[in-house]
Each structure stands twice: as C-alpha cells, then as structure tokens.
Design the sequence.
C-alpha cells in the first residue's frame, strides 16, 4: 500500500516533529513526511527537518494581509506536495473554520492534556492548579473549535506531589512522543474510522490508550 503523505506544521522546537520523522524513517512505517512548514522563520523544528533532508517552507503569518491570505498560501503549498494528511505539531496559529473544513478528517493535532480537559494554552499550570491526579496528551482530528474533535489516541501520566509546570510538561512530552507516531500509524494503516464524532480503531479491542504502550 502507498505510504500516507504527511505535512507537519510547526511553530517551534519540533520534538513531536522529530518523533514523527524518526518513525517515518522506517520504510515499513505506513506514512512519510513530505513537507514541514513553519509560521516562524528560523524555528528549531525547521533545522530538524532540514537535517532529515525533508522539504521545508516558512510562511510567516505576519507578512500576510490576514488569515484568509495566510491560509490560502498554506493550502497551496500543501496541495502542491500531494499531501494526504496534515499533522499539527506545536503549530501556534488558530486555523479558520474554512481551512479546517477543507481538510476535514485529514487534519490532526496533538494537545498536551487529556481532552476535553484543559483545551487552549497553559495546560500544565491549569492541571496543577486544579489538582488533577492524572495529566496526559491527546491526538485528535481537528474541528473548528479549539482543541476539539474526535480523539484518536490518548496517554495518561501521573501528576506527582511537588511537580512544577516543567517537570509535568516533560513527563507529558515523553507520552506525546509515543502517541503521535501511534496515531499516525493507525491512520496510515487505514484503521481509523470516524463514527458520529468518535473514532473507532479497527482491530483494537479497546479504545487506543498509549499509557502502557500496548500497541494494537
Ligand atoms: C507540545 O506539547 C504539543 O502538544 C503542543 O505544543 C508542544 C509542541 O512541542 N501542541 P514540540 O514543538 O513538538 O517540541
């Protein structure tokens, strides 16, 4: 089967991008990164992509008249690369409902909380302030609402007494690096169906939970 062609959109350091690149380096992995785009010139993630020999581009949102123009350029570049699926990986621009609809069910995101808890920014600070015992991450299909959409993979991590935002973020990030490639693999294998805004994973007896990493 042809490998899924993936564009990864970033704004910063790109550690999730790196985990996707590392998994896609295996020719047996059912997806390949064909394009990495950043809205921030010089972001560290671009250097990771170049290091891996991938096509990269920078679309500085500040240089566009408005969101519609920015997204038009984004869409054009992505289509020019024959992309099947867009992965948002720390991409810090809100996409309009128009763009999200154009890429409906072909656009996924990773968020550092157990959605629907703590959508938006400062998730770790809010988790600590709330006193939750478990934090985690979610890979989900993107819908127009912020950090909402059918969940593909989640992983939970414990919140420890004395955790700071930094220690909790590091524990969650390690889980993110397992979850994103797993979600991409499941989609690449054609096993993810959306039924009534929930996903069903073919061949997985239970919802896919990457906490203990029992890969289905
Ligand atoms: C991750 O925590 C991701 O969940 C969030 O932004 C962060 C990006 O980190 N959306 P990196 O750029 O992948 O290292």
Sequence:
């Amino acid at each position: 089967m042809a490998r899924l062609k993936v564009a990864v959109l970033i704004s910063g350091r790109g550690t999730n991008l790196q985990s996707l690149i590392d998994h896609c380096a295996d020719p047996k992995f059912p997806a390949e990164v064909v394009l990495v785009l950043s809205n921030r010139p010089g972001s560290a993630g671009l250097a990771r992509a170049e290091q891996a020999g991938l096509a990269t581009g920078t679309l500085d949102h500040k240089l566009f008249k408005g969101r519609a123009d920015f997204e038009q350029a984004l869409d054009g570049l992505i289509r020019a690369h024959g992309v099947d699926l867009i992965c948002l990986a720390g991409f810090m621009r809100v996409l309009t409902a128009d763009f999200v609809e154009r890429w409906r069910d072909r656009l996924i995101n990773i968020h550092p909380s157990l959605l629907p808890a703590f959508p938006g920014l400062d998730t770790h600070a809010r988790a600590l302030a709330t006193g939750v015992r478990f934090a985690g991450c979610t890979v989900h299909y993107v819908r127009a609402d912020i950090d909402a959409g059918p969940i593909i993979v989640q992983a939970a991590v414990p919140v420890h007494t004395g955790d700071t935002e930094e220690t909790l973020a590091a524990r969650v990030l390690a889980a993110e690096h397992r979850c994103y490639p797993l979600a991409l693999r499941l989609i690449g294998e054609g096993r993810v169906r959306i039924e009534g805004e929930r996903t069903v994973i073919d061949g997985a007896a239970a919802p896919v939970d990457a906490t203990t990493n029992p890969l289905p």
Q: What stands out?
A: Residues 3 and 30 are 5 Å apart (CA to CA). The chain has a mean pLDDT of 95. The beta strands are 4-10, 31-38, 56-58, 85-88, 107-111, 134-141, 151-158, 192-195, 198-201.
